[in-house]
Amino acid sequence: MFTSTGSSGLYKAPLSKSLLLVPSALSLLTLLLPHCQKFFVYDLHAVKNDFQIWRLICGRIICLDLKDTFCSSLLIYNFRIFERRYGSRKFASFLLGSWVLSALFDLVLVEAVQYSFGIPVANSLPSGFLAPVFALFVPFYCSIPRVQVAQILGPLSITNKTLIYILGLQLFASGPYVWIVAISGLISGMCYDRKVFQVHQLLRIPGRMARFSSWALEPIFSSSEPTSEARVGMGATVDIQRQQRMEQLDRQLMLSQFAQVRRQRQQQGGMINWNRLFPPLRQRRNINYQDGPRSEPRASPPLEVSEEQVARLMEMGFSRGDALEALRASNNDLNVATNFLLQH
């Protein structure tokens, strides 16, 4: 039920890997050194009254709760798809922008709740890199295709995004005041994603810093390309597992043929005719079970492609030509087409 776009592992996601390793290691270290935890408490009372601005930084990096560390790490792992799609610099800029904006929204929300409803809010909010994690739900909801995995209780269905939302709800309910951090993260994610007040231009990673980080840190946190994929849904029945294996074989066959033809295109130039080279497996006929004389092969008309799906792929940053060819090759399967374009 995890998002099935892109390959597994942390290939082409060095920033996501660093966010998984470094904060988690520091969180475990603070558990072994309890006297150091006071430096990572997200204390808004100290920020407002004692002007301890440094707590806006230290208190919003390391989680002091293991449950928050575990849930946020799982979400960062699944949101690594955005680093592959946008690139490490743009992904880091989104995290930086939402992290800075959410600090402002935290202060505003606490004051608004106390003033409007008279509800006293604790001086300390949950610590950790939580707000940018909630902010990533905005592009996740808007741009990741929804693919149904199973249907239960009539209209209710399980999709490839269900488990991610469940993890988000678990993180949302992990503490009494996490909802403040979650709302501020979602608002900051919408502001940055919708380019409100041009915040994406103001809060972004400078080019020199991105190049230096790529030179210094990427060799440390880079991962090798996975050699095999093994996606079987957790708790799936035998029929679902069999269907998933058939889909895996379908995708692996098309990916291998695409890689072979891609090398030929680099030498010859031009656009690949995906349907001519390898039509989707679902449209192929097993000639061993056909009766009667064979008819002469006729050229099938080009598959009509949904303009809405083309537009969604173009919004992800792909060209119209590549989007058209990928959708035709995948028989208008948006999820499979996204796989092709993200991995190549």
From TrEMBL:
| Membrane-protein topology | Multi-pass membrane protein
Which residue ranges traverse the bilayer? 91-113, 125-142, 163-187
Q: Which residues form the signal peptide?
A: none
**What are the start and end residues of every segment in region (Disordered)?**
286-306
Q: Which keywords appear in this protein's UniProt record, sorted alphabetically?
A: Membrane, Transmembrane, Transmembrane helix
Q: Which part of the chain is the UBA domain?
A: 304-344
Localization per record: Membrane
Chaperone among the record's keywords?
no
Transmembrane in keyword set: yes
Q: Which Pfam families match?
A: UBA (PF00627)
Q: Predominant location of this chain?
A: membrane
The cross-references to SMART domains, in alphabetical order and at most eight, read: UBA
The protein's name in its UniProt record: Ubiquitin-associated domain-containing protein 2
What gene, per UniProt, encodes this protein? Ubac2
